[in-house]
Amino acid sequence: MSHPILETRDLSVRFGGHVAVDRISCTFRTGELTAIVGPNGAGKTTYFNLISGQIAASAGSVVLNGRNITRMPVAQRTHLGIGRAFQLTNLFPNLNVLENVRLVIQSKAGRGFNMLSMASDHDDLTMPAEEIVERVRLTGHAHQPVSELSHGNQRKLEVALLIALDPLVYMFDEPTAGMSVDEAPVVLDLIAELKARKDRTILLVEHKMDVIRTLADRIIVLHNGALAADGEPAEVMASDVVRDAYMGRELEDG
Ligand SMILES: Nc1ncnc2c1ncn2[C@@H]1O[C@H](COP(=O)(O)OP(=O)(O)OP(=O)(O)O)[C@@H](O)[C@H]1O
């Protein structure tokens, strides 16, 4: 098996008296797609925020490629290889789809994240940007300002930007939430392609059973902020821990 790229060690955060993530120790390997499941409020998003750096840990550590990144700001973690699906707030709303993708490629290529530099200065980056826009089926919207995109197309753009960034660790938080049945497969196919490359690590917070079944190599279950189960999908799904964690609530079948 490949070496662990990402590890959390006794990672915890408390908000006032409430422990939202409770001493989670977990290792993630290259080539592996881990689904993170658990009922509402279990701590999934908070765990993601701790890994990507959106919030600071109260205790424990996050280790990327052997390096302690626990105290690093988001931008530095991104630079080192942690990639979280962009929220619309990270985009330039008045620039179009293609320009936003090109800016991420430009920044990745070490040419700065300068939206004022002329597009013609970076002509060589336009073609890779167009390819990524095509992969998420947004070619028809390439010249549309991102602020005018439908919700589903915004989500596809988030995935496009992450692919442009091409981090070591891809973090997806319910990537198809709110997408139509026509749109979701585009994103799921792209995640499957990333997984097939075997050279990236993918973390996926997901409620949809069919998505987990199709994509996950491994499932971890969070319950009350703690790691309740960790293992192969069939084994975890059949376990009492999952039944107890969900307390009668089902993972979504849709
Ligand atoms: N900034 C915050 N301040 C106070 N409490 C918070 C904060 N962020 C999260 N929490 C609490 O931490 C717990 C975990 O929340 P979190 O959003 O991580 O759960 P989740 O598993 O992602 O849930 P969902 O599936 O509903 O998105 C919840 O009880 C939540 O209310």
Task: Using the alpha-carbon principal axes, give the shape.
Answer: globular
Query: In terms of structural class, how would the helical and strand content be classed?
Result: alpha/beta
H/E topology pattern = EEEHEEHEHHHEHEHEEHH
Spatial order of the strands in the main sheet? 6-7-8-3-9-10
* Fourth-tier CATH superfamily name of the largest domain: P-loop containing nucleotide triphosphate hydrolases
Count of distinct structural domains: 2
Known CATH architecture of the largest domain: 3-Layer(aba) Sandwich
GO molecular function, one term: ATP hydrolysis activity
Keywords: ATP-binding, Nucleotide-binding, Transport
GO cellular component, one term: plasma membrane
Pfam family, one: ABC_tran
What does this structure look like?
There is one protein chain. The chain is α/β, with parallel strands linked by helices and 254 residues long. The protein has 2 domains: 1-81 and 167-254, P-loop containing nucleotide triphosphate hydrolases (Rossmann fold, 3-Layer(aba) Sandwich), CATH 3.40.50; 89-166, no CATH class. The chain is 35% helix and 24% strand. It has helices at 44-52, 74-80, 97-108, 123-135, 151-165, 184-197, 209-215, 233-237, 240-246; strands spanning 4-15, 18-29, 33-37, 59-64, 67-68, 82-84, 169-173, 201-205, 218-223, 226-231. The strands form 2 sheets. It has a 6-stranded mixed sheet with strand order 6-7-8-3-9-10, with helices on both faces. A 4-stranded antiparallel sheet has the order 2-1-4-5, covered by helices on one side. A hairpin with a 2-residue loop joins strand 9 (218-223) and strand 10. Helix 3 (97-108) packs across helix 4 (123-135), helix 3 packs parallel to helix 5 and helix 4 crosses helix 5. The chain is globular, with a radius of gyration of 18 Å. The relative contact order is 0.18. The mean pLDDT is 89. Residues 6-249 form the ABC transporter domain. Keywords: ATP-binding, Nucleotide-binding, Transport. One of its GO terms (molecular function) is ATP binding.
